[in-house]
Structures are given as structure tokens and as C-alpha cells.
Specification:
The protein has 8 helices and 8 strands; from the N terminus they run αβββαβαβαβααβαβα. By secondary structure, the chain is of the alpha/beta class. Strands 1-2-4-3-5-6-7-8 form an 8-stranded mixed sheet, with helices on both faces. Helix 3 (107-121) packs across helix 4.
Length: 302
């Protein structure tokens, strides 16, 4: 791999700097319920934001934050592309979940499933419609959102007995990994710059989450790969990604889109591939991108 193009630490920091400097201001949202616990761990909590008027029940946009499964917060600016939902007749629910190194997969996935069950059980109290829901997420959160949506009704991925839960009718995947077997293969194929060194002996955050090297785990990787969970009844998915993303290669979104179209139908997957946006790019919170997100969600939740 003599031609590997690696970003420096400074270049990686510059990618995340705009997001880190941006604060989530929810002071203008009058109806909100913050830090609602769905489990015993402090991270197992969610924030609910409602439209200013009406009695609902409102369709729900769940958001799972990114941060390499080890960082990030439900209250940081990652949720910005979805916050305009409260002005469009949606409830927005930002979900926290337990992080590395305190847990391993699938405990973080079980947290997303637990949040969906809690919401269904408490929907009437918070004016929510558990039958009209979308799962969305950024980066690591998009991975968990996809896994949760694609495995609905499958007991082994639930973390609890099957019971009352939310019905997921759509998914928005913002630059999430879909096939961990190709983490470096995709960059080898494109020749684009990457952040992670393929020759490093250290486990990646994703490998730490699963507890071993993906190239040594064989078929076990299928249980963490969203692309391996695609089936004919998968919810419609909008994937948003930057072509030159050095953290998660753009082909993750392309291959997922192609597989969903092949397995579930052409109308089940949309791809929004941006030439001028990177990972965790605030451009995905720009008015045109927000309009695209809600045009997609309106088709399935309104």
C-alpha cells in the first residue's frame, strides 16, 4: 500500500472543528422534555422536541449522534439537520446511548431499541405517534440507526423480549458505515485520502466496539454490518454522504443504495452524494439539504 494517502492529525481536526464550535440552541423551542430516562445509565436518556402548537400525535424523527461509538452527545450540533422538523409538524427525539469503552456491541444497538420501546409506551404522554417514525443518525449513530431499523422484529437484535415498540417507516443515513469489511478497500479503490492508517496494529474504534479485528472475525461481521441486514421489507433509506469523506468512504452509501434497490425495489433507496462536503459537514444542515431530508420523510410519515 505504498500509495496510501493519510491525513495528518491537524487535517482531521480541521474537519471536525466547525461542528465542535457550533452549539445547539433550543431556547426557542417552547415545548421540550429534556433528559427523559429510558434506562438506568445516565447515557440512556433522550430529549423530545415538539411543534409549538397542536395536540398531535406527531410523527417522530429519532436521531442518533455520531462520535465513533465512543463520544458525542444527544445535545450537540449533530442533530441540527433535523431540528427544523418541529417547524414542519414533526416531533424530534435525540437519543443518547452508552459509549465505548464501557460497553461493546450490541449493547449500544440494544439502547436504540430500548429508546424505541420507551417511546411507544409513553407516546400518549408526549403527544407522539409511534406508528409514524423515522430513524436517523450521523456517522456511528447512522450505523446504529440503520441496524435498528433493518432488524425490527428480530428478537436476537432486540436486547429484550419482543413487545410494543415504534414502527420505523423511513431512515436517513448521514455518512454512516455500512460494510466494515471494506473500511480500507474502498479507499484503495478510489485512491482518496483517508484518516485511518491501514497498516496500524491498533484496533479501530469499530473493532473495539465489536471486540476484535474484522478481518479475523469472518461471518460474525455480518451481525454488525447494515448492508448484510438488507431484506425485501427494509424501510426506505435516504443516504447522504460526501464523496471525499476521509473518515467513512463514500462507497458505503453507494453500495448500500444499490443493494437496497436490488433487494427491496428501486423506490426504497435515495442517494444524496455531495462533491463539496466532508464528514460531519455542517453543509448537511443547509436549507437545501434540510429540504431534501424532509421531502423524503414527508413521503413516508405524513
Amino acid at each position: 500500500m505504498a500509495d496510501v494517502k493519510l491525513l495528518s492529525g491537524r487535517e482531521i481536526g480541521a474537519i471536525f472543528a466547525p461542528l465542535a464550535k457550533t452549539k445547539l440552541d433550543v431556547s426557542g423551542i417552547r415545548r421540550k422534555f429534556l433528559n427523559c430516562p429510558y434506562g438506568e445509565d445516565p447515557r440512556q436518556a433522550l430529549d423530545i422536541y415538539l411543534p409549538a402548537e397542536g395536540d398531535g400525535p406527531y410523527p417522530v424523527v429519532f436521531f442518533a449522534h455520531g462520535g465513533g461509538w465512543s463520544g458525542g452527545s444527544r445535545a450537540d450540533a449533530q442533530v441540527l439537520p433535523f431540528m427544523d422538523g418541529v417547524n414542519r409538524g414533526y416531533a424530534v427525539v435525540s437519543v443518547g446511548y452508552r459509549l465505548l469503552p464501557h460497553i461493546r456491541y450490541p449493547e449500544n444497538l440494544f439502547d436504540i431499541k430500548a429508546a424505541l420501546r420507551w417511546t411507544a409506551e409513553n407516546a400518549e404522554t408526549y403527544l407522539l405517534d409511534p406508528d409514524r417514525c423515522a430513524l436517523t443518525g450521523a456517522s456511528a449513530g447512522a450505523h446504529l440507526a440503520m441496524m435498528a431499523a433493518f432488524t425490527m422484529g428480530q428478537a436476537v437484535f432486540e436486547g429484550a423480549p419482543l413487545g410494543k415498540t415504534c414502527r420505523i417507516r423511513a431512515v436517513v443515513n448521514q455518512f454512516g458505515p455500512t460494510d466494515f469489511r471494506k473500511t480500507h478497500t474502498y479507499y484503495d479503490e478510489s485512491g482518496y485520502a483517508r484518516a485511518a492508517d491501514p497498516n496500524s496494529d491498533a484496533l479501530s474504534e469499530a473493532e473495539q466496539m465489536f471486540g476484535g479485528r474484522f478481518d479475523e472475525l469472518g461471518n460474525l461481521v455480518r451481525f454488525v454490518n447494515p448492508i448484510d441486514q438488507v431484506h425485501p421489507d427494509v424501510p426506505p433509506v435516504l443516504s447522504q454522504h460526501g464523496r471525499y469523506d476521509p473518515i467513512v468512504a463514500y462507497q458505503h452509501a453507494v453500495d448500500l443504495t444499490e443493494k437496497i434497490r436490488r433487494v427491496a425495489g428501486e423506490d426504497r433507496a435515495e442517494l444524496d452524494l455531495q462533491e463539496n462536503m466532508s464528514h460531519a459537514d455542517l453543509g448537511f444542515a443547509s436549507p437545501p439539504e434540510v429540504d431534501r431530508i424532509f421531502a423524503f420523510l414527508d413521503k413516508y410519515l405524513k
